[in-house]
Each structure stands twice: as C-alpha cells, then as structure tokens.
Amino acid sequence: MRTARIASALLMGVAVLAYSGWLLEFFLPTGVSPVRDPVEALLGGPPVFRVLLAVSGVAFLLAGPPLHRLGPVQWTARLSSISVSAFGLVVLVQAAYPDSSDWVSPLLSTVLMVGVISLVLWWPPGWRTLAVAGLILVMATWLAVVLARQLDTFEGVFTRIQLVVRAVLFGVGGAYAFIKPAPRHAPRGG
Asked: pTM score > 0.85 for this model?
C-alpha cells in the first residue's frame, strides 16, 4: 500500500503541475488573449503547451491504478480511480488533436463530474463536504464557459477559471489519497 500511496501522490502531483502549464502563457509570447480566447487556443501556439498537456494526460492515466489500490472495494471508490484515468485519456486526445477541443472540453467536464460525484458517495463527512463544494464549482464553471461562448464574452477568463478548479480538485483528491489511511479489507476465507 505504501508504494501505491507514493506512486499516486507523485503521479497526481506531476499531473496537476503539468495540467497547470497553461500558466506559462503569462511568461511566453503566445498571441492568445487570456480574456477573450479560450485556454485551448494555447495548444496552437508554442509546443510547450501541448507537451505539458500530454505529460499531464499520461500522469493522470497512470495515477488511476495506484489510486484503485488505495480506495475501498466499493464501486463508487473504483469509479473515482477509473475517472482519473479516463480524464487522462481524454486529455491525451486533446493534446494530440487540439482542434477537437469543442467536444473534448465538455467531455472532460463530464468525466470530472462523474469522478467528483463518486467521491461524494464514498468520502467521509469532512472530505465529502469538499467534494460537494467541488461538484458545485465544476458545474458552475462549466455553465459559465457555456454562457461565455454563447455571449462571446470573457470566454478566456472562464476557461482559465475552469482549469484552476479542475487542478485544485485533483490536488485535493491526491491529498486525500496520500493523507487518509488505506482502508482495511475484510479477511478472505480460505
């Protein structure tokens, strides 16, 4: 269990840091407006953004199996770790095909919502409150992005807020996996 805990913490840390690589836009010339242009527009700029997105996708994908070992043997806990890997797979698709962001971004939000709902169903009360707040934030930022696209205003701001919310949620999930003791499983009969 200790190896799974360390592996999941390292992979989730790498995933969250690389997923936050869009922040480099404030230090690199990109030609992308942080106010008007969606954050996905960075994928057409300097290759560092696609590389970091791909690194985060691989790290999320690989973090799922060790997280799977750390959670209790319940379908809701299993769904949490599966959603982390699924998120990573969709992020990899986005890095490989940046023009697919029109359907990939809503899919990422959906996968994240499924994962957060699964956390609400199995995390203990104090942590569950964080998961409920996270679910509300995921839904609110998703709605804000949809409205910003429809109104053609501040899409860049809301897509960036959305990425911050996602990174924070994955950070909280990684912290839970690292901090909480591994569940005790019932002894198997022979």
From this structure: yes
